[in-house]
Write a structure and sequence with these properties.
70% helix; 410 residues; mainly alpha
Length: 410
């Protein structure tokens, strides 16, 4: 790696630490952040994946099952920081967890942000050489969405490291048994962080089998299954039915495929759909999130079957919002946040398209990375587009392509 890459990695970590620890302090936590911290606190305290308050009482509200790896990561950070598990749990709906816990999590994720900078540089260097690696590292170090994401207690930063690592291993040693096993294991860990990675694995299987042999594809699949299977078995014992990773898939699919859906954003960005969710839950009182998951899927598929024309128009809106960042979820943030997010994305996109064209002409397209980005776009069409779904994979891919254009142009 060129020296400039390591300098960019260091600068990237410093920027993330400065934002997370110097600016993003005393901010209210989102619903997802509270969920993750509650799970992490209980895991760190030895109570398992449960939604319990520090006093042991049940946390009120709607709680769906989460993929386990990110809460485990947070629990490890809590334990490593020397804090008690209960200190990671927000003590009240309008209160924050112990400040030391948030600082430790944000510092750890800032370091992971440096790993993302390195992976983006490596993938660009593999595609277009050392100049591309240096340019990609510089872009990734200062790219605003990648800088501020580690400040949130979200799974995106950890997922990005694992998913890009999986693509990097597939790029480096695609046909070897060891490479296939390593990429499968990383793919399994990515699935246990964000189940959306399931969209990538069939694409990787087909590409690997077609280009490098079906034996390698089978090894990748087996390695992934070995990583995921223990959690699926645990779910079967816990819930009495098959739940592959988490029960949040049903409500997410319902949110993106409903007559009231607008094509972008979750329930927080759609008050009418949020009320419809409350009405649905009222029709099934006492049902657990795991019991509700198939009901959400059934309701969504009913809409698709009864109104295919309306659903296709909804999919067209999803496709538009996937590319154009003007959906209602952006308006939930401040104007300054929206400007930084939209402008940075819009500034990179045209150069990324030029870079993909140049890579295609030279026969150097990074196939695993593009398949990973394609799977993220497919998630947006099947469920719904949201900035958080785009940033971990699609934005790094755009940075790799933009840096490649600059290097190949020279």
């Amino acid at each position: 790696m060129p020296r400039a890459v390591w300098m960019a990695v260091a600068a990237g970590v410093a920027l993330r630490l400065a934002f997370a620890l110097g600016y993003w302090v005393d901010k209210p936590l989102t619903h997802d952040e509270r969920e993750y911290l509650t799970l992490a606190g209980n895991v760190a305290a030895g109570r398992g994946f449960v939604h319990l308050s520090p006093d042991g009482s049940s946390v009120p509200g709607e709680h769906f099952g989460r993929a386990p790896l990110y809460p485990l990561f947070l629990a490890g950070v809590v334990r490593a920081s020397g804090a008690e598990g209960a200190s990671a749990i927000p003590p009240a709906p309008d209160a924050a967890p112990a400040a030391a816990v948030l600082r430790a999590v944000r510092a750890a994720q800032s370091v992971l942000g440096g790993a993302i900078v390195w992976l983006v540089a490596w993938l660009a260097g593999r595609a277009a050489g050392p100049r591309a690696a240096a340019s990609a590292a510089a872009l990734a170090a200062v790219y605003p969405p990648l800088v501020w994401t580690p400040a949130y207690v979200w799974s995106e930063t950890l997922f990005s490291v694992l998913a890009l690592g999986c693509a990097a291993v597939l790029t480096r040693t695609p046909g070897s048994p060891g490479g296939a096993a390593a990429s499968g294991a990383l793919g399994g860990l990515s699935v246990l962080t964000r189940p959306a990675m399931l969209f990538f694995l069939p694409l990787a299987f087909i590409w690997l089998g077609w280009r490098h042999g079906w034996r390698a594809a089978a090894i990748l699949t087996v390695a992934c299954l070995l990583v995921v299977a223990p959690w699926t078995i645990r779910n079967a014992r816990e819930y009495g039915r098959f739940v592959l990773i988490a029960s949040e898939g049903g409500i997410t699919f319902w949110t993106g495929n409903h007559p009231l859906a607008v094509g972008e954003g979750d329930l927080a960005a759609n008050p009418a759909l949020k009320r419809a969710n409350a009405d649905l839950r009222a029709r099934y009182p006492g049902r657990s999130p795991e019991d509700l998951e198939p009901i959400y899927y059934r309701e969504a598929w009913r809409f698709v079957g009864e109104a295919p024309g309306a659903w296709l128009r909804l999919v067209a809106r999803k496709a538009f919002y996937t590319v154009v960042p003007v959906g209602p979820s952006y308006r939930l943030h401040s104007a300054r946040y929206y400007a930084a997010s939209a402008l940075s994305y819009a500034a990179v996109l045209p150069f990324a398209l030029l870079g993909l064209r140049a890579l295609w002409r030279k026969g150097r397209l990074p196939a695993p990375l593009l398949l990973l980005a394609s799977s993220s776009l497919a998630v947006c069409l099947v469920f719904f587009p949201q900035e958080r779904f785009r940033i971990p994979v699609v934005d790094p891919t755009l940075l790799v392509a933009a840096a490649s254009w600059r290097a190949l142009r020279g």
